[in-house]
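Annex B, item 7. Sequence and structure tokens for protein A, then protein B.
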Amino acid sequence: MQEKDILPTVPMRDGFGEALLELGHKNKDVVVLTADLEESTRANLFADAFPNRFFELGVAEQNMMGIATGMALTGKIPFVCSFAVFSPGRSWDQLRVGVCYSKANVKVIGGHTGFSAGGDGATHQALEDIAITRCLPNLAVVSPANARQAYQAVFAIAQHAGPVYLRISRSAPYHLTGTLTHELTKDKFEFGKAQVLKKGKDVTLFATGLMVAEALIAAEQLSKDGIDAEVLNIHTIKPLDDEAVLASLQKTGAAVTIEEHQRAGGLGSAILEVIAGKVTIPIELIGVADHFGETGDPAQLAAKHGLTSAKMVKAAHKVIGEKTCRTMIFC
């Protein structure tokens, strides 16, 4: 599969798997490790093509991270593939002390993030992985919006010297209208640079992962309400593009963030850390409100927890109202 053939309806993990296969052809130093989940993470494509550079470690994520560290320190570029709840979830200590402390060139791939694990339930739905990775020194955190961007991100993180956590969903975006298809794929992925998908002047919508599609849908709806929303895809959560964030907020003066992750410690928290002491604006954070996931359809679970374009529209009206209120004597 070529990049041009990867449509928005393709599951994100498929875009990752195709890119990893192509990267294997281009760079002989790339090796892949999995913990009994090669097919689910789509690492099986690499395994079939390069069996001598593929390592199945069994259900032993901590050991896998340690082996990857050793490989990286000998010049290899290990891609460590598992579900995010297990890696970095179960292997966080080895990621911290082995990979990050050593600045080892390991690429940690956390699959089935957010609610995308669906029927596997709460134990397999990673809603805390951004928080536990972005706090680690030396570790970059990347969260692409769809399969095509995941494909592009694989090559970008392979070029980045140092540890990276790549957050991958099992699914394609839950909702995406035809008119928005081009917006998510028109620009190349640039590591560390936020993607301005739509310019606007009234409110900024910050989104990451599958929620970028929801933000674009929300912007369309807001335009019908006479509101000009700016949409930023924050695909690199760390290092965050502070300049783009502040430039947008200085223009719009109000913001809404959305992520398929706990509201604590994720994208919204990162945005707040950037603006603290620099700009004073009304801002609403949309994320999972201190709950575990549960068994069910991923799109329905996201909707149950308010991770929708409709929730963004409501939040945008709220912050715009608060912005207007601040300019008046009485509200």
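Protein B:
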Amino acid sequence: MKSKICSIFLLFLAVFPCFSQENGNGNGPIAITMDQAVEMAIENNITLRQTILSNEARRRAGQTPWNVFIPTIDVAGTLGRFNEAQTISGLAPVGLAPPYMVVPYSITRPQWVLFGSLQIALNLNIGTFAGIKQTMEEYEAGKISIERAKLQLERDVRKAYYQILLAQEYLDLLREGLANADRQVNMAQANYRGGLIPEVNLLQAQVGRENLRPQIDEAENLYRMAMSSYALFLGLPYDTEFELAPLSGNAEFIVLEASDLISRAAANKPEVEELRRNLAALKAQRTAVFFNLYTPTLSLAYNMDPTFIGDPMTDSWFNGDWRQQTGMFRITLAWRLNAFIPFTREYQSYRAMNDAVEAMDLGLSLAVQGTQTEVYNIILQLERTRTTADAQRMTVTLAERTLQLSETAYRFGQKQYIEVQGDELALRQARLGMLQQNYNYLMGLLDLEYAIGVPFGSLGGRNF
């Protein structure tokens, strides 16, 4: 049982490394139910926030997959000055009718020039449409990742809740044991003073009591550390005083159909579903790469480059002369053939993509097999816990009967009070053992519900 307390604290350090501290309380202990704990953890967990934030880009891309058909538009304007003045010389005809006269001319161009450019381009390939599907698949995979993270978080919060309640019961049992040890020491002192027992019996009673104190101190320290970690994980200050609402009733032991549950887990476990989504996204990416490499690309482009004919430093830009130089509309069909040649980078990249898809497909098969084995082991463990709980229930019944007989014997003077106290402690230990089996069963059901992808509490209520 002592190792159980240690495992609770280690669980918080390993499973809940990230948390926020946003809510405070200074008005006494807060009563928190399990459902409230789950809500607080989901709202305040930083790791979950990071997962949601990392999917934001996928969400935006998934909402606008058609934007790949928006052409690229580049606009630029240039105002420049030649280092040297440029002179244009030549011969020009003069006159309206033959014979023409030819006279020489010389024009010095302005050193300052002004021109702009507008380029619009759109590349179309069959892989563009496959890329849209890839974007949608990646977005769906991101949503599955967020849902899986939430389910894992809820499962861990609920399991930790059970473990803290069990640790609370264990601590109460240790304190009751210390109180019983105090009564034994007091009785031994009275008997020693009356000459009824030797000193060694008194010393033995005192040693037994003192041996309990370090155990209680350690249990209390670990319990406080676990409660502080749980408070931080729920978004509360570490020193917040709160109480976990106890559970009502015992676990409901149910009959589990292994084959049905195993098939459900293979189809619905969050990790398996996430792998399927990631595999679908990778296959869509492979399809897009294939079409981009092995099909031609149609390019539509239009450009214009208006140039100011005049001196931009002295002439009006709006009343001056603007002329096109090289503007045009182009339709180009291009096909890179490198992918058809072995050992080229393009050819090898597509082979690497095929290998990645095959590796993930094998990983999915392994995950399904592992899930089947995991669910089968959980079912076996639950059945073993149920059997142990039945035996523990008989122990509780015997301890209750023993206490009844001890109380009767005490009333007739046939037993001492300390013996009755010992039987009470034995009954408490038996009930604690029964409670531990109940919690073990409930935590096993949480693992099973997570594995088969049903809401938590469904198996206990048979609502699936």
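Comment on protein B: The longest helix spans residues 126-193.
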